[in-house]
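Please annotate the following for my students:
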Amino acid sequence: MAASYPIVEETFAEASAALGYDLWALTQQGQLKN
């Protein structure tokens, strides 16, 4: 979906920066890698 809608990628990038971890990876894989 991010490939079709650049705003999705931008939003996840902003959220990831604020949270300090890769939110996109979390939503895709279901867990964070340490």
Summary: The chain is about 60% helix and 0% strand. The chain has a mean pLDDT of 89.
